[in-house]
Specification:
Blueprint (H helix, E strand, L loop, with lengths): L4 H9 L6 E5 L4 H12 L4 E6 L2 H5 L6 E6 L5 H7 L8 E4 L14 H28 L4 E6 L12 H21 L4 E8 L11 H10 L1 H8 L11 H12 L10 E4 L6
Length: about 260
């Protein structure tokens, strides 16, 4: 008996059917896009972590959801959450904050503020996810959000770029360590993506006040050969490919998705 196109498409879309996944930084941007995509593709349960409670609750996902309100850099949060993650299949290590300024002008407190979330928080997230996956019979997969600023030196984003270079390499090390347990770990290095992380930059806010957000993003995207920034949904699609069974032979890889920015 033949299979109709619509039925085939539905089979492909539900590739996370019955799975359990953890997503950090899930209240907006790439994290929210990942959470929506996982739910739409059949995930049975999602653990969503963010400091923004209202943002999480606004997602309205069609699956079982456990909201975890707090900072990924808080070790006690993970100590409490780890026992509840039993059976975890997938983890998206996405929470992060932006920063700007020349290295020579940065304070140590600003440096540590960024590293605390972007690097320490990513470490705590990945450590917890790998522990849970190792304890189960199936293994699992994780994807970490890095950045092209961790691949290509960009002036004025010192702690952010360094933290993203570090998490990309952490993914490679974790992939080597996780392979024996059937755990795959990859990273994605997006270029420009139109998310709320830009709003923390003073130059960006000044430009928005003068030109508006859309025009500001358009000006910034001229540094990208394709001439545009990615959407959160585009990055989420790439992340879910690496996370899914379709990417079962991919581990220790850092996927650059940047419209040609690093060329």
């Amino acid at each position: 008996m033949g299979i109709g196109l619509a039925q085939f498409a539905m089979t492909i879309i539900k590739d996370f059917d019955g799975r359990t996944a953890l997503v950090t930084g899930a209240a907006s941007g790439i994290g929210a896009a990942c959470a929506k995509a996982l739910a739409g593709r059949g995930a049975a349960k999602l653990f969503l972590v963010d400091v923004d409670k209202s943002g999480l609750e606004a997602l309205m996902l069609d699956c079982e959801v456990e909201y975890v309100i707090g900072s990924v850099a808080d070790e006690s949060l993970w100590s409490i959450l780890e026992p509840r993650l039993a059976g975890l299949d997938h983890a998206i290590v996405n929470a992060g904050i932006g920063a700007g300024g020349p290295i020579s002008e940065l304070s140590l407190s600003e440096w540590r503020r960024v590293m605390n979330v972007n690097l320490d928080g990513a470490f705590l997230t990945l450590r917890t996810a790998m522990r849970v996956m190792q304890a189960g019979p199936k293994g699992g997969s994780a994807v970490i959000t890095a950045s092209t600023t961790g691949v290509k030196p960009v002036p004025g984003v010192g702690p952010y770029g360094v933290s993203k270079a570090a998490v990309a390499h952490m993914a490679r090390i974790a992939a080597m360590e996780g392979a024996a347990h059937n755990i795959r770990v990859n990273a994605i290095a997006p270029g420009g993506v139109d998310t709320a992380i830009w709003d923390s930059g003073e130059d960006f806010r000044r430009s928005v006040e003068t030109r508006g957000r859309e025009a500001t993003i358009q000006i910034m995207s001229k540094t990208t050969p394709l001439g545009r920034f990615a959407t959160s949904e585009e990055i989420a699609d790439s992340m879910l490919f690496m996370l899914s069974d379709a990417g079962s032979n991919i581990t220790g890889h850092v996927l650059v998705s940047d419209g040609g920015f690093v060329l």
